[in-house]
Amino acid sequence: MLILDEAAANLDGESEEELACALDRARAGRTTLVIAHRLSTIRRADRVVVLEAGRVVEQGAFAELVARPDSRLAHLLAHQLGQ
């Protein structure tokens, strides 16, 4: 199991992308838990679990959650993008 806690928190966009590519190779065949506030860090995840106050408020595939305008993940993404 690979656990990443805010692994890209202090990286610029280019460095974050390089890290993401390296991590894609490293996590192949492994269960990986990624803890992140930057949503760009989790866009490659198979499954996303959104927590608020320690409770699961939604879960699913990243693309499915952001496609739903009422989802918490879509709201968080819009906020991070300044929309």
TrEMBL record:
Q: Which GO terms label this protein's molecular function in UniProt?
A: ABC-type oligopeptide transporter activity
Origin, by domain of life? Bacteria
Among the record's GO biological process terms, what is one?
oligopeptide export from mitochondrion
PANTHER family noted in UniProt: ATP-BINDING CASSETTE SUB-FAMILY B MEMBER 10, MITOCHONDRIAL, ATP-DEPENDENT PERMEASE MDL1, MITOCHONDRIAL
Q: What is this protein called?
A: Uncharacterized protein
In the record, what lineage is assigned to the organism producing the protein? Bacteria, Bacillati, Actinomycetota, Actinomycetes, Kitasatosporales
